[in-house]
Design a protein that fits this description.
D-Maltodextrin-Binding Protein, domain 2; 12 helices; 5-stranded mixed beta sheet
């Protein structure tokens, strides 16, 4: 009897230990989370990731370590997430270019089917976008009409920038040129991302670009970049004299850019949900809200994991349509 009692006690203790161990394993996060950013420091995507990382640590008690991995249209960052252990501890903060356009343009360069291998956990923010020009070298245009007139009168001489061939700012300007009467302009991409493109326009190496408000705001205030139009639902309070693209006659041109958080689709559903919940709490933190507002970012979290999945599929379909209308030579580096 005594031996039986000891056996029962041991079994109970083992069961209790197993339950406790399982509970500890299921708790997410219980160690640092690595977040891959497909650009160098300083651009909107990097800024978003760092703001979220700060808030995430406050909410969960675990750090979110930002790792910048630019290059190959975002393929390097995507592949790192796809090949990481699918446990929620490697995520990606990406944007329109890297997480919709790249998979549309280069499906065969990915090791797996993108929509089967990657899952959107939540949208995070969206970002208004300027069509802006430089003030360097006394570049004259100050209004949308003046810019259009200048481009038409100087075919092939206006240089515009982007964060890379095939990026959404590239598609936006190419589409704008088409809608405005097939403007003849030169494209000069900068592989260093938004920060590099800002430096290009400050030097006058490029004269125009679609660029997000966060990247341009400081230089706009300094008078070194001149916004002509804005891609937004309405005029921004900080820029009341800058008309929207719709007001200027181009309602379907330009991208209200977004940043979202992704991870491997093989991540267990419970972990995906825990990550989603942590992100939702992060985006409701007063400090996070304040930092996002200062960047003119609109916080637009997904309502659920299911909605995030549907949203990503919709974005892919949208860009499949645009890339079929605007043909870009991806080999033109």
């Amino acid at each position: 009897m005594k031996r039986l009692s000891l056996m029962l006690l041991s079994a109970c203790l083992a069961t209790a230990f197993g339950v406790a161990t399982a509970a500890a394993q299921e708790k997410f996060p219980n160690r640092p989370v690595k977040v891959i950013v497909p650009y160098g420091p300083g651009g909107a995507t990097d800024i978003t990731a760092r703001i979220v990382a700060d808030g995430f640590q406050k909410v969960t008690g675990q750090p979110m370590v930002v790792i910048n991995k630019p290059g190959a249209y975002g393929l390097l960052a995507i592949e790192e997430v796809l090949h990481a252990t699918p446990d929620g501890y490697t995520v990606m903060v990406g944007n329109v270019s890297t997480n919709t356009i790249t998979p549309v343009l280069f499906p065969k360069k990915l090791s797996v089917d993108y929509l089967k291998g990657m899952v959107a956990i939540s949208n995070l923010i969206d970002v208004p976008e300027f069509l802006a020009v430089t003030t360097a070298d006394n570049f004259a245009p100050k209004t949308p009409k003046e810019f259009l007139d200048y481009a038409k009168q100087n075919p092939g001489k206006v240089r515009y920038g982007s964060v890379g061939v095939g990026s959404y700012p590239h598609y936006d300007m190419a589409y704008f040129a088409k809608k405005a009467g097939d403007l003849d302009m030169q494209h000069l991409p900068n592989k260093a991302g938004a920060a590099g493109m800002v430096q290009d326009i400050l030097r006058g190496d490029i004269q125009a670009a679609f660029m997000n408000v966060a990247s341009a705001a400081g230089q706009v205030q300094a008078g070194k970049i001149r916004p002509l139009m804005i891609v937004a639902r309405e005029r921004l309070p900080d820029y009341p004299n800058v008309p929207t693209m719709k007001e200027a006659g181009y309602p379907d041109v330009g991208t209200i850019a977004w940043n979202a958080i992704f991870t491997s689709a093989g991540t267990p559903p419970a972990v995906q949900q825990a990550l989603f919940d942590a992100v939702q709490k992060t985006l409701k933190e007063p400090d996070t809200i304040d930092k996002m507002n200062k960047q003119n970012f609109n916080i637009v979290p997904s309502k659920s994991l299911a909605e995030a999945k549907t949203w990503l599929a919709g974005e892919m379909k949208h860009w499949e349509g645009i890339t079929s209308v605007v043909k870009i030579d991806m080999a033109a580096q």
